[in-house]
Specification:
alpha+beta, 24% strand, FAD, oxidoreductase, 296 residues
Length: 296
C-alpha cells in the first residue's frame, strides 16, 4: 500500500494509469497545475495527497504535428502542450488560427507558459473549448488498456470525475469531407480587456458563398464563466443553406437566446450573458455577410 504523500512522475502512460487506479480518490493528475491551484486557493477543491505529474510521459508531451495522408489530415497536439507553445506553433497558426486566437485570450504570459491545453479542456470550462468544438476536435484517452477516441462534444456531455488520461487532441483538417471552412471567429468578453475570466466566449466556423450570399457548413459554440461550453445546433440550422438577410440575423439572435442557458454569477446575470452571446454571433455574421448585402 502507498502511504507517503508525494508527487509521482511516471515515465509512461501505463505506469501513470496504474498509479492513479491504486491511489484512487487520494490522487489527481497534474499538468501545469494552474487550474488546480486556482481551485485549491479558492477552497472549491481539496488538494489530493498524491499528485501524478504527467510531465515525463512522452505521448502526452508529443509535439504539435500534421499527421495522416492527404484527404485525411489532422493536427495532433499532445495534451501537455502549453498554451504558449500553441500560440507560437506554425502548423497550428496555419491550420487552426481560431484555436490560436482562443489560447491568446487565456490568462497572461506567465500562466500560458505553464498552463496546458489538456488542463484547459479538463477544467470543462476552459476558454479554448468553444474553438475546439467548432473545429470538431477529437480527444484521445488512455483507459488503462487501450487508446480511445471521443469527440470533444460527446465528452462534454458526459464528463464526470475523469480517471482516464487525456493523451492528445486531434483536429481534422480534411477539406473534402465538409471540414473546410472559409470563415472562423472567436470572441471572448470579460469585465476588462485581458487577464480576466470570461463572461461569454463564442466561436464559429463555416463557409459563405459571396456571390449568392449563402452560408454552409456552419458550426457555432458558446461558453464562458462557470458554464460548460456547448454547440448550438438549432442556431446552426437557422443559418445553413440560408441567404444572408436581416431576418436571418433576427432569427439567429432569438435562437441563441433560447439555446444558451448560462447561470447568474458575481460577474453577470444569465440574461445579460445570453444577450451578449446572441449579439456577438450576430455581429460576426454581419461582418461576414453584411459587406455583401445592404440590410433592408
Ligand atoms: C491567474 C489565472 C488566470 C486564468 N485565466 C484563465 C482564462 O482566462 N481562461 C481559461 O480558460 N482559464 C484560465 N485559467 C485557468 C487555467 O490556467 C487554464 O485553464 C489552464 O489551461 C489549465 O491548464 P493546467 O495544465 O495548468 O491544468 P492543471 O491545473 O494541471 O489541471 C487541470 C485539471 O485537468 C486534470 N488533468 C490535467 N492534465 C490531464 C491529463 N493529461 N489527463 C487527465 N487529466 C488531466 C487535472 O487533474 C485537473 O483536474 C487561469 C488561471 C489562473 C491562475
Amino acid at each position: 500500500m502507498i502511504t507517503n504523500e508525494k508527487v509521482w512522475r511516471p515515465d509512461n502512460l501505463h505506469d501513470a494509469w496504474i498509479l492513479s487506479s491504486k491511489l484512487s480518490d487520494q490522487c489527481c493528475f497534474v499538468s501545469g497545475g494552474t487550474w488546480l491551484r486556482t481551485q485549491w486557493e479558492a477552497g472549491t477543491k481539496e488538494m489530493a495527497p498524491h499528485l501524478i505529474s504527467l510531465d515525463k510521459v512522452p505521448e502526452v508531451k508529443e509535439d504539435i504535428s500534421l499527421k495522416g495522408q492527404l484527404g485525411q489530415e489532422e493536427v495532433v497536439i499532445g495534451a501537455s502542450t502549453t498554451l504558449a507553445e500553441m500560440i507560437t506553433n506554425p502548423t497550428l497558426n496555419e491550420k487552426a488560427p481560431v484555436l490560436v486566437k482562443a489560447c491568446k485570450n487565456i490568462a497572461g504570459p506567465s500562466i500560458r507558459n505553464q498552463g496546458t491545453i489538456g488542463g484547459n479542456i479538463l477544467s470543462c470550462v476552459g476558454d479554448a473549448i468553444p474553438a475546439l468544438i467548432v473545429l470538431n476536435a477529437k480527444l484521445m484517452w488512455f483507459n488503462g488498456d487501450e487508446l480511445v477516441y471521443q469527440s470533444i462534444e460527446e465528452w462534454l456531455l458526459n464528463q464526470d470525475e475523469v480517471r482516464d488520461i487525456l493523451v492528445s487532441i486531434h483536429i481534422p483538417t480534411d477539406k473534402s469531407k465538409g471540414e473546410h471552412y472559409e470563415f472562423a471567429f472567436y470572441t471572448k468578453v470579460g469585465r476588462r480587456e485581458s487577464f480576466i475570466p470570461s463572461l461569454v466566449t463564442v466561436a464559429g466556423t463555416g463557409c459563405y458563398r459571396k456571390g449568392e450570399g449563402i452560408f454552409s457548413h456552419v458550426s457555432l459554440s458558446v461558453g464562458g464563466g462557470n458554464v460548460v461550453p456547448i454547440r448550438l445546433p438549432n442556431t446552426e440550422v437557422k443559418i445553413i443553406n440560408n441567404e444572408y438577410s436581416s431576418e436571418l440575423l433576427y432569427n439567429v439572435l432569438r435562437q441563441v437566446q433560447q439555446d444558451y442557458k448560462p447561470i447568474d454569477d458575481a460577474f453577470g446575470s444569465a440574461a445579460y450573458k445570453r444577450k451578449v452571446a446572441g449579439n456577438l454571433i450576430v455581429s460576426e455574421l454581419y461582418r461576414i455577410g453584411g459587406s455583401n448585402h445592404a440590410l433592408e
